From TrEMBL:
<feature type="domain" description="PRC-barrel">
    <location>
        <begin position="25"/>
        <end position="101"/>
    </location>
</feature>
<feature type="region of interest" description="Disordered">
    <location>
        <begin position="131"/>
        <end position="169"/>
    </location>
</feature>
<feature type="region of interest" description="Disordered">
    <location>
        <begin position="1"/>
        <end position="22"/>
    </location>
</feature>
<dbReference type="InterPro" id="IPR011033">
    <property type="entry name" value="PRC_barrel-like_sf"/>
</dbReference>
<dbReference type="InterPro" id="IPR027275">
    <property type="entry name" value="PRC-brl_dom"/>
</dbReference>
<protein>
    <submittedName>
        <fullName>Sporulation protein YlmC, PRC-barrel domain family</fullName>
    </submittedName>
</protein>
<feature type="compositionally biased region" description="Basic and acidic residues">
    <location>
        <begin position="1"/>
        <end position="16"/>
    </location>
</feature>
<dbReference type="Pfam" id="PF05239">
    <property type="entry name" value="PRC"/>
</dbReference>
Amino acid sequence: MKCEDPHAHDEPKASNEEAPTPPLMRAATLIGENVYNLEGIELGEIKDIMLDAHAGRIAYAVLSFGGFLGIADKLFAVPWKALKPDAVHKQFLLDVDKKQLESAPGFDKDHWPDMADPTWQNKVHSYYRIKPFREPGDSPDIPYDDTPYTNPPVEKETQASNPHPGRGR
């Protein structure tokens, strides 16, 4: 999250100080931002943003990792909801370690996946434990484990044994 004020970094803020995350940000300020894990280790840099034009939201941040000077970089489409803004340190956080990112579904700059493919989307979202959302009413804020995508509905035993409660058999 690039800061527009050139003097904003003159006095570092304390790590426990809360800073508001801007409600709107220019996409250009996101490109080139570094992403860190929760331990403060740099994971990579945001190279691109993928928009879901139908839903009107950011779907993925394309993260570059590895390589040297842009050579042999591996790209990863990280679900936008997996990234957490850290307004205090002006960076994004991703809850994975480097080993996890190395084994994440990735691609190279000349062979992008079909990000509209539901199979690919499910693979990527499940890797980062983020619920894939298909409909405008789907909430991307529900933890992945608590969704019908991972937990099929369980019928109560009484309903299964007597499909018409209140009636005798």
